[in-house]
Amino acid sequence: MDVVSDAVAAVRMGQAVSERVRVSGSWCARFAPYDGAGFHVVLEGGCWLLPDGGTPVSLGVGDAVLLPHGTGHVIADSPADAATLARAMPFERWTGGPPGPRRLPRSMTGGVELLCGKYRLDHSRVHPLLAELPTVVHLPNRVGDHPELRAAIGLLGGELTAGRPGTGIAVPSLVDLLLVYMIRGWVDQGGGAWSAALGDPVTAAALRALHADPAAAWTNERLAAEAGVSRPTLARRFTSLVGRPPMAYLTWWRLTLAAGALRDTRDSLAAIARRVGYGTPYALSHAFSREFGTTPGRYRARAVGVDGRRGKAGGAGTPREGGEAEGGAGPLRGKGVVR
């Protein structure tokens, strides 16, 4: 696994929900803050995104925008004043029902067509690559930029209008692809320290090795050899770009994987310990308790108790850094139409 894939896999829970809407006239809809990530793709026309406390963003056809931290926001036909924003209709009322992909009649033309949705993410164990994403990641539709994202948006638009067999599987899969491609687009734009880390051949090689086999008996010497540099060179470049030494990062990642396994599986502590690189359940329990402030058993029980099923963030704490590796206002105005 590569770092971006692992970072997404560590926090993804359940299936994304999405809603295809078409609207015309004067309109304004609010999205409340969300424990996950929100996204919008403009399939036709244009609109404005107004994040809470942020700068308005103009969106055109083919644009994609990700709100990775679930920031509350409004989408509207034009920039709105504070009074209008305060009266914006909640999106759930705006669409008239629970979220879910909805296909519009081909005969409907004009106005603005959007795909709006949410990814359910567990922010209690978010990877630092995702933590440093800005409030809004805007990927405008420009010739030559982000070809994979453009292709996915094109395929998604086709699935939403064609009504062909298999659409029920194709649409959720393409929505999942959007998350990866939007994060990749931000990395490719050179955003944040992690773009530099993944672009540095030495640091990237070390990260690939640790993520490919986190349970291996890694040492600084072995990892430096894997990256093809001396131990001091690896330590200097890795620590500068990642924010912590190689073995401290490995400890954090192993415990993050262990937390995910405790939440999402019924595997024994011994099995989880072997999977993430600890020689005994006791060694894992000791490291886990030190970093999370609770035992693995209590962490698992709290995660299950909060949601009644695997996969819900239990709020039992997050790994600490450091340490060495061990073993529109009111009803829609104008010709507002939502299907």
Structure description:
- With 339 residues, this protein is of the alpha+beta class.
- The protein is 45% helix and 15% strand.
- It has helices at residues 3-11, 82-86, 91-95, 128-131, 147-162, 167-188, 192-199, 201-212, 220-227, 231-242, 246-264, 269-276, 281-292, 296-307, and strands at residues 17-23, 28-31, 36-44, 47-51, 57-59, 64-67, 73-76, 89-90, 112-120, 137-139.
- Strands 1-9-3-6-10 form a 5-stranded antiparallel β-sheet, with helices on one face. A 5-stranded mixed β-sheet has the order 5-4-7-2-8.
- The radius of gyration is 22 Å and the shape is globular.
- The model is unreliable at 98-107, 309-316 and 321-339 (pLDDT under 50).
Provide a short characterization of the protein structure.
The protein has 339 residues and is of the alpha+beta class. The protein has helices spanning 3-11, 82-86, 91-95, 128-131, 147-162, 167-188, 192-199, 201-212, 220-227, 231-242, 246-264, 269-276, 281-292, 296-307, and strands spanning 17-23, 28-31, 36-44, 47-51, 57-59, 64-67, 73-76, 89-90, 112-120, 137-139.
- Helical percentage: 40-55%
**Number of helical regions:** 14
Strand content: 5-15%
H/E element order: HEEEEEEEHEHEHEHHHHHHHHHH
CA(first)-CA(last) distance: 40 Å
Mean pLDDT, to the nearest integer, reads 82
Largest beta-sheet characterization = 5 strands, antiparallel
- Assembly category: single chain
Rg on CA atoms, Å: 22 Å
Number of strands: 10
The dominant shape is globular
Uncertain stretches: 98-107, 309-316, 321-339
Strand order of the largest sheet: 1-9-3-6-10
Structural class based on helices, strands and sheet pairing: alpha+beta
